[in-house]
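re: that chain from earlier
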Amino acid sequence: MGETKGKTLNSKSAVKFVSDHAIIFLIILLAIITWANSQNFLSADNVGNLISNVAPRFIIACGVSGCLITKGTDLSAGRQVGLAACFAAMMQQTLDYSARVFGWMPDMHWVFALLITVAIMACFGAVNGCVIAFLKVPPFIATLGMQTLVYGICQIITGNQPIGGFKESYRALASGNFFSSVLGRYSRLLPYLLLPALLVGLFMWFLYNKTRHGKYMYAIGGNENAAQVAGVNVSATLIRIYILASVMYALAGFLIGSKAGGASTATGTGYELEAIAACTIGGVSVNGGVGKVSGILIGVLVFEVLKICLQFLRFDPAYTFIAQGLVIIVAVALDLRKYLAKK
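^ sequence. v structure.
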């Protein structure tokens, strides 16, 4: 009798695990089918391209994750990434480029351009945090308003014109690979973009798991009122979370501009939805209080593998958007299902 009951519980647990991670299993199956149809799917070039695409998106998702864990969101993420890319682009144009946005701007090392971009974007994060913490505006509305505001600013400063003519030192940040002289074509597996993503992942893991800020963040997501009664400074924590998110968007935008070789008002469009979906797929609950950095990475990988698989299977690009939309809906639905099951 006991053995039968144990087997029933094990089978139920297995079914629950598979249903909770259905999207991940489906993407793995799709990847296997794609690999069976194209041997180049696992080539060094393709895997290297996957890593290069995952790196900046993982950084964006890490920024969004803190907002989600505290039962918030950040719909301005994509536009902030685009604005950061445009700021970086303006500061990294060659002096002899005929279409320089700011002809008076002196030559600037990319490190200073990055620091200035981070400082500017942190201000937008601070505004988001203050509006949510002090004015009690729901994060959905506050960040939706910021999304439109940032897009308008980006249009004004760029004149709706694409920005190009980057210095080689800036372009090399996203185009080079580690140990290229030793590993040859396999150095594609170690692109420069891997390093900032790795450092961000380690930093966020430490912040979420080993610091008071991380404990406060999870406490607010679990029960904001209880956290406040326990002595947590909810307002200060929320402001820090949204500032940190904007810093992540600044870094990602800086790298995306380098990788793309140009920037415009269209840069970063839709990235916020990809980041939210990736977080949700990776176990960051939109209902707050739950989320791991390792799960975020898995979620981003799932999203990027989906895109590459559809490209290799020669689907029309329009179907990629349909698939992404379905993944977002299913991911949030599964998350809500888990939340309701716990209640």
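The longest helix spans residues 234-260.
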